[in-house]
Amino acid sequence: MTAAGLPMEVTAEGLPTRVRIHEVGARDGLQNEKTVVPTEIKAEFIHRLADAGLPVVEATSFVHPKWVPQLADAEQLFPLLGDIAPHRLPVLVPNERGLDRALALGARRIAVFGSATESFAKANLNRTVDEALAMFAPVLARAKDAKVHVRGYLSMCFGDPWEGPVPIAQTVRVCRALLDLGCDELSLGDTIGVATPGHVQHLLAALNEAGVPTSRLGVHFHDTYGQALANTFAALQHGVTTVDASAGGLGGCPYAKSATGNLATEDLVWMLHGLGIETGVDLDRLTATSVWMAEALGRPSPSRTLRALSHKE
Amino acid sequence: MTAAGLPMEVTAEGLPTRVRIHEVGARDGLQNEKTVVPTEIKAEFIHRLADAGLPVVEATSFVHPKWVPQLADAEQLFPLLGDIAPHRLPVLVPNERGLDRALALGARRIAVFGSATESFAKANLNRTVDEALAMFAPVLARAKDAKVHVRGYLSMCFGDPWEGPVPIAQTVRVCRALLDLGCDELSLGDTIGVATPGHVQHLLAALNEAGVPTSRLGVHFHDTYGQALANTFAALQHGVTTVDASAGGLGGCPYAKSATGNLATEDLVWMLHGLGIETGVDLDRLTATSVWMAEALGRPSPSRTLRALSHKE
């Protein structure tokens, strides 16, 4: 690596001093890859991500295997991660059956996934928004009883492929409902990547006005239109300290029509470290991990930082 | 295009209401492409960019053809653009010989290019920083006499591949020198794409303290590490209203070691329009132009917005 291998650390005003990256590559990423990755490779991937300093590595999903065949091996995978503290390994849980499976394996952190729009709730869950919330209610009640931490993912917070721009009040309503059901934190998803920084700051302000503290909000941006990092910077300025990202940008082939384009963790870490914000992540180890995973998948990573750093080696 | 085809317009606080995009695809972009593009295609490209509403389209370079063979046809190209107002068509001029050629063709807007670091001045111009400034002095004096508008490009304002992070005071010194020589505006270049938003805001503040008004500053970010749009947002917050970008991200193959990664104009326009900032650019026409140019070059565009929009058609 040359002398230019790291950015100059220059803090912008009013930003948090530390950000917790919620790594979604092993779940949201691999779930959207065409290649089904062997269980042992997944386990090594998660171990390497945890070893690179990522505090939270979403591990898998307990959705019915019929819907997500890429993650059908949750029962085989989770025991292979036994040396990582369970609170670092959230898992996706759609319903009570999924919760049973997760609890049986010792999961201590789960996530449910709702939608801010009716169109996506119908497409993804075959339910209305309110029917989906009703489905989560017993999951959340039982999770609370078991003292399990619950994250609520909310898709389509900014735009929706069928409905277009999503009104801020509509997103706020569903956020409020998820918190009232007992979610400990929310992840605001720009599932199709259309948001811009002003929209992000206005949604966050509207949530604050509705009584939701920023400390309970994470952001989950997609880079479909190249906006993810600008939106993240806008969210940091609002005080957000939890940011979702996917190692190597896993989760959407940049050359395919279906590109979902998760924000690449490497691009995020580059910005955060340049801003003097602590993450605990070792960028070299993270980059090596994503290069290794890209080879296992047989396709190049869309992360720009990853490409720039790995070409220098 | 679906209902999601445009972002919701939500203005962030304190941003300019209008931004002038300085389009560099036909010069900075094509100069760095391996393919030498026929003169007629270049002329059509520039016409289409101007017709798409880009107010300024950098047209070509009067550097010696030996150094930039891709732009050796400046004398043939410029007359083909006669129906576009010359003040919309800046050209690059390295020295008095280049100025003679540009003036003979009726150019009314030129750009010189300096370096904030000694290493790059040596590599690019085979001169020290101060020797390069001395070379520009008579060019600027004569341009002023001819009432020609002069932009000063400054490379390596943030980081340098040999020297690493560039001290802010060093960049400020060379900016000041270029303005004192008579430059009407400066373009602050992050040539290797390592800058992060705090660094951008601190450099702009330091320039203001040194007596340089923001109105004379443009920014020129590269997306090598994915930071270009976040840095642009930070610059807008500081009041910058001139932003350089390259149609389709031309100017660095994303798959090659030499990737320079100009910020794609489409990604920039998506953000600006989402922020409710006027640009005068018709995104559909711009996208169609970049798709056409990518076909002429025989390679896909690295612009994410371009890919997202063109896949929907």
Label this structure with key terms.
homodimer; 313 residues; alpha/beta; TIM Barrel; nine-stranded parallel beta sheet; two-stranded antiparallel sheet; 12 helices; 11 strands; 41% helix; HMGL (chains A, B); metal-binding (chains A, B); Hydroxymethylglutaryl-CoA lyase (chains A, B); hydroxymethylglutaryl-CoA lyase activity (chains A, B)
Architecture overview:
Two copies of one chain form a homodimer. The first copy, chain A, has 313 residues and is an alpha/beta fold. Chain A has a single domain, classed as Aldolase class I (TIM Barrel), CATH 3.20.20. Helices cover 41% and strands 14% of the residues of chain A. The first copy, chain A, is built from twelve helices and eleven strands. Chain A has a nine-stranded parallel beta sheet with strand order 2-1-11-10-9-6-5-4-3, sandwiched between helices. In chain A, strands 7-8 form a two-stranded antiparallel ribbon. In chain A, strand 9, helix 8 and strand 10 form a beta-alpha-beta unit. In chain A, helix 2 runs antiparallel to helix 11, helix 7 crosses helix 8 and helix 8 packs parallel to helix 9. About 2% of the residues of chain A have low confidence. Chains A, B: InterPro entries: Aldolase_TIM (IPR013785), HMGL (IPR043594), PYR_CT (IPR000891). Chains A, B: Keywords: Lyase, Metal-binding. Chains A, B: Pfam families: HMGL-like (PF00682).
